[in-house]
Amino acid sequence: MSEEQRSGDELDVRENAAPEVDDSKSAPEDRASAGPFDASEVPSMRPYVDLGGIKVAPREGLQLRLEVDERAKRVVAVSLDYQGSLLQVQAFAAPKTTGLWNGVRAEIAQQMGSQGAQLVEESGPLGPELVVTTPAPADQGGGSRVARFIAVDGPRWMLRGVVMGRAATDADARAGVIDLFREIVVVRGDQPMPPSELLPLRVPAGVQQQGGPAQGVTQA
User: Cβ of 122: how many Cβ atoms within 10 Å?
Assistant: First the structure.
């Protein structure tokens, strides 16, 4: 094989290789002091609603709803309803030295884009955010819906949030939701878990779980 043929083959291999994934951590510089927090970073006596892999700070007017996968019979997300906005959060296991958000954000963009959604990436107080606009069904008033995906890579975990309602488009409302997000505590635990696995969530003590898609908990 000539040198020219060999160079051409090498070029083809490089062109067909999968694009490199940015696995650097994405988090604000003050994450350890301003949140979202790792369980090791908060005083044990501070009151929280304990949901297992996530702890939520009580706040007046905040309503918690647990999203339940009925087939798997497990809680898969926590929705926080606050002042006309909705923040749905999930925590995932992650490697110790690398992050997930940059790669996950690209996956969400590819998936939503293939379904016809309009995508805009913006820089927010926590880092890169993905704003997704989708058409709303005609029987629900038509128009469009906006969801804003945010996330922070912490020590061995990633906390992801989906902002909907007023805060998705209103900057003042969004500031309050970001504060809510930053008060969350992630309990990663010591057990080994593969990257991107959902941290287990549970119904808080004293709340009886019922059938249906979600279980509500009101913080007055």
Answer: 9
What CATH number does residue 119 fall under? 3.40.1000
Residue 120 structural domain:
31-202
Q: Is 3 inside any structural domain?
A: no
Tokens of 8: 């051409």
Q: Which amino acid is at 163?
A: V
- Taking every pair of Cα atoms in the chain, the longest distance, rounded to a whole number of angstroms, is 77
Quick count: other Cβ atoms within 10 Å of Cβ 9? 11
Cα–Cα dist 123/81, whole Å: 24
pLDDT digits (tens, 9 = 90+) for 112-145: 999 999 999 999 999 999 999 998 887 777 788 9
DSSP per residue over 69-136, as a string?
A: ETTTTEEEEEEEEETTEEEEEEEEE--SSS-SHHHHHHHHHHHHHHTT-EEEEEEETTEEEEEEEEEP
| Whole-number Å distance between alpha carbons of 192 and 65 | 28
Asked if residues 159 and 93 have their Cβ atoms less than 8 Å apart, the reply is: no
Q: 144 pairs with which residues across the strands?
A: 135
pTM: 0.85
